[in-house]
Each structure stands twice: as structure tokens, then as C-alpha cells.
Amino acid sequence: MNLLTLILTVAIAFGITDFLTERYPRLQRDIFYIAWFVVAGLFAVKYYYGPDIWSYVPFYETVPSYTSIITHPEDLRFGFEPGFALFCRFMKDCGFSFYWMTCILSCVYFIVILALFRKIDRKRAFALAILVSLDYNVICYELRQCLAVVFFLLMALAVERKHYLWAALCAFLTIICHKSGLFAVVPTLAYFVISNARMSMHTISQLLLVLLVIAFLLPVTQLSLGFLDHLPFSESVLYSIRHHLSLGRQVQVVFLIYALTLVCIVHYTQYCKSRNEIIAIIATIGILCIVILYQYYYLLNRVRSYFTPVLIVYIFRLIQDAEGREIHIPYGKLLKQTTSFFLILYMIHSTIAINKGGMVLKNKVNDACTVFDLINQDKGALQRRQMMKARKFWEEDYMQHETNKIHH
Fold first, then answer.
1. Which pLDDT value is given to residue 271?
2. Helix, strand, coil % over all residues of the chain, rounded to 5
């Protein structure tokens, strides 16, 4: 059985119940908590699961001391970041195995998501289904980025509560836990620096539009690669960034389209401010980052995971605030129903595609393997089987058949 397919199916089923319980808000809220517990639990019980354990397990088993991590971060295996290494070192010192480390990380991620999704008044289970369908990779496989996303969301919540010292610490931890965290934290902090300079929203929007036009006109890939040679990063970090940037596409007309979208968003937020202004700001920054990184598929796929939960909350709040204040939008109800219908279709189609993609693999890395398998199987044998499956996936399926779309 494909565990990932099961998780997505369960999440979508809970999401659909939101449309059947619209007249019962209390029941809808209770169903969300059940959905949250079940989905989080399914992610938490996975045991040595997925292809990435081929690098994560040996790294966890041989993670160096605190002193070595801090003084020689460039020597970490697989080019992993020092923040994640410190987390692993702490988990090991607490006596946790690799499984318990992944379990704790999954639980912490969903606890933060719970705190964020409480800002949505209705249809939280549907929002959870959307998040899981879009970001299952980060939750399931990419442990380093999952930890970075946790700290980024904690940073957003801290800024909203005006706990700026805690927010600064979370921003720093985000960056050192995964390289992509820099692309999420820097523009977010830059906004707050600019806003504290008491620049008007009109001036800020003009600056953003200028940046979009520049991004449209300049050869972004060539300039980015040339600039990298002057950065004081280790060779492993530079190689990773070059790899992502070299996959860029040269079609940049989309920047003009998104520039117009930005104008509409700024206009809307200027006259119809959300009750959660920080969430609205970070969501807008997320849209801007998606625009700028449009042509870099792999980098965009990483960066969007930081903003996806915030964007979901922001969009749901926009719609529900407009309904609560009875703001008339032409064909608004039809648009909402149509969008919801196609989102459900997309999630179902994506789940079917993931299931079919997993079936054609020689090494079924998505097949279910949970901690409950230890009841009737030897622990060492089960771990060796999963590690062998992951190794063969990278050697055979990934390299020969280019199935990296399933993973990345």
C-alpha cells in the first residue's frame, strides 16, 4: 500500500466534509481537529520512509559534536546545514533514535500549522487538505527544510505578537537550517525594515514594480551565476545554488503579468485591510518571491513551502472577511464554488498521479512502512530493507528514468 496516497486521500476526504457541514460551524471545527490529529499522526508514524533516508540516516548516526558543527560547518556530510546538524545532535543527546527524531519533527510542524490555521474561521479541514496536497514533499521527505519552515512560521507568529527578539532568533535558525531559508527570510525582514522607515504603501509598491520590470528586462540567470563567484560560501553551497539557477527558463514575460497582479493586491490591501495585517504582509511577500523565482523550478519549489501555509490562511481570511462584511463581488459565490470544485479535482488528480507514479518504480519507496511494522518484523532487518530500497531508488529509478518529479 502507498502510504503517501493514503495520507492524501484521508486529508482530501476530511476537506470535503467542510462543504457538507457548512450549517454546523461547531461540528466543522471538531472535524478539523480530528483531521489534524489523524493526518499528523499518519505522517508521524512513518518509519525509515522515502528515498531521502539514504543520506539522512548516515548523517544522523554520525553527526559530529556541537564544537565541530560550529567551528567547521563546511565539513558536514552531504553539504547539510549547521542548523539541522545542531538539531540532530540535540536529538541524539536526548537519546532519540532516527525514527523519534522524524516523529518529533512532524509533530512540531503540525503543531505550528495548528496555531496558524486557528486564524481561519471556517473550512479549516479543507485548508489542511490543500496544504498537505501541495507540500507533502516537505512534510514527508525533506527534513531539513521542514525544520526551516517551522522556524519561519514561528517567526511570522512572533512578529504578529510583536515578540521581535524571538522573531530574530527564528529568522536566524531558518537560514542555518536550510539554504533556501535565506530567500524567504531576507525579503520578509527587508519589508519590515522598509516599513519602519515610514515609507508609504504607494512608494513601496512603486519600488516592487521597478524590481519586477528589471527582472523582466535583465538576463537574470547570467547575472546571478556571475554574482555567485564573489560570495563567501563553501563550494558545496555554491554548487547547490548554481545547480538550481542553471535550470532557469528564459521566458520572463510572466513578470509583467505578476506586476499587474501585485498592483491589484496592493490596491486591495490599502483599502480593505485584513484583521491579520502581518499575515497579509508575509503572504504578499510570498507572492513577490514566487514571481521573482518563477523561472527557477527547483528553487521555487523550495521557497514556496515557506509561504504556502501563510498564503492559504491569508486567502481564506480574505474570502471569509468579505462574506462576513457582506462585500458584494460580482459572481462571487459562483467563483468560490467553481474554484473549490477545481481545487478538489486537482487534489484528487494529484493523488492518483502520485499513486500511479509510485507503481511504475522498481523500488517502491512510497510503500507503507510505519512504526507498527516493528510488531512483527525485526528492527534491524526492516531498517536495512528500507535503506536498500532508498539506495536502489537513487541508482536505478531516479538516475535512469528521471522520476525526480515524484520526489522534488
1. 46
2. 75, 0, 20
